[in-house]
Design goal:
2 copies of one chain form a homodimer. Chain A is of the alpha+beta class. Chain A folds into 2 domains: 64 residues, Winged helix-like DNA-binding domain superfamily/Winged helix DNA-binding domain (Arc Repressor Mutant, subunit A); 128 residues, CBS-domain (Roll), CATH 3.10.580.10. Helices cover 39% and strands 18% of the residues of chain A. Chain A is built from 8 helices and 8 strands; from the N terminus they run αααββαβαββαβαββα. In chain A, the strands form 3 sheets. In chain A, strands 3-4-5-6 form a 4-stranded mixed β-sheet. In chain A, strands 1-2 form a two-stranded antiparallel ribbon. A two-stranded antiparallel ribbon of chain A has the order 7-8. In chain A, helix 2 crosses helix 3 and helix 5 crosses helix 6. The longest helix of chain A has 13 residues. The two termini of chain A are 23 Å apart. Chains A and B meet through helix 3, helix 4, helix 5, helix 6 and helix 7 of A and helix 3, helix 4, helix 5, helix 6 and helix 7 of B. Chains A, B: Keywords: CBS domain, Repeat.
């Protein structure tokens, strides 16, 4: 069973020639290999179809810089936030830490977004933030969430048009579990979605099941 | 720029013929299309190289059931836990909930594994478990973690030889953030690793950067 695009020796040789001498015509490649253009036709077709080479009329073949698996990563690099985001769960900045914890359990999410009276994003609360607060000495019923939340401009957010892979990179880099998906308004940013490591994990499962086109 | 393997009309026609009549020889395919075997050679080569068709000597071509994107899913479906796991963080079953929370912060993990005196896995503690306990009425310094942990046999675990995608499916299905990677011993299971949604997110980033072979 052929699972991957495996190139034969001649195809690899052609790739090397085009890398070194491209753009180069089919005839010139054939000359270098002491073969006829007709003999090379299937190999050139395969290399072009598979995306290793590209051809322009009256210019010749050139190397696209892509390896077999780069063609696969191209697919991942086209997937956008809007197709994989979840609904956001928000609390007002005046609610208590205790109420935020209760909301987190009721809604079964790991991150809450905090908004002001204009529904504008002002903060983010993670399970870690709430756990830290809960072992402190303060009374959870009396501290408002805006005391313990991460606040603007330290919030990492994304837009629905952004690439999922950029979000995945931000989640790793900032060591956070979720990003708000926002829309710019005249007051600031409105929260329109949530994207989490769970969404990313589901995406990998969907890719493995060949459910993403 | 050709980013994906795009089939032309004749190649799609060949695929249909092989789906319906395979295994079928190149000559028989050529007959159905009123073309010569030589004319079809590049198309059959492309379809075979790209993994859509497979060929067996003296049998002919048959359909592998794979689409272009199935080649990506094939790649994902070969990746194993051992290449992407993290180090586990364990606590003894006799430590207090308070000490477990402190360990979670010091080690900066979202899940702790609980072991007995033989280093055998007996429980799992998530941030959610600890947060739930922390808003209860009990004194966190006096409750041992074995009162609040998820315990065997309710722990979902995996082996280092398991496929990452099976772990990803379990994380989604069980709505958990991490699994212990275990090794069977004569006492039960020893914890040898940890695999989380963060590991899965990093894997997607690595796939998108073409870092996984």
């Amino acid at each position: 069973m052929v699972n991957d695009i495996e190139l034969n020796k001649r195809q690899k040789h052609i790739l090397e020639i085009v890398k070194d001498h491209g753009p180069i015509t089919g005839e010139a490649i054939a000359d270098q290999l002491n073969l006829t253009r007709a003999t090379l036709r299937p190999d050139l077709a395969i290399l072009t179809m598979a995306g290793f080479l590209d051809a322009r009329p009256r210019v010749g073949y050139f190397y696209t810089g892509k390896t077999g698996s780069q063609l696969l990563s191209d697919k991942i690099n086209k997937i956008r936030v809007e197709d994989h985001q979840s609904l956001p769960v928000v609390v007002n900045e005046s609610v208590s830490v205790y109420d935020a914890i209760v909301t987190m359990f009721l809604e079964d999410v790991g991150t809450l977004f905090v908004v002001d009276e204009h529904s504008t994003l002002v903060g983010v609360l993670s399970r870690k933030d709430l756990l830290r607060a809960s072992i402190g000495k303060q009374e959870l019923n009396t501290i408002p969430v805006n005391i313990i939340m991460t606040r603007m401009p330290n919030i990492t957010f994304c837009l629905k048009e952004d690439l999922i892979i950029d979000v995945a990179n931000k989640l790793i880099e900032k060591q956070i579990d979720a990003l708000p998906v926002v829309k710019k308004t005249n007051k600031g940013y409105e929260v329109v979605g949530r994207i989490t490591k769970t969404n990313i994990t589901k995406l990998l499962v969907a890719l493995s099941n060949d459910e993403i086109m």
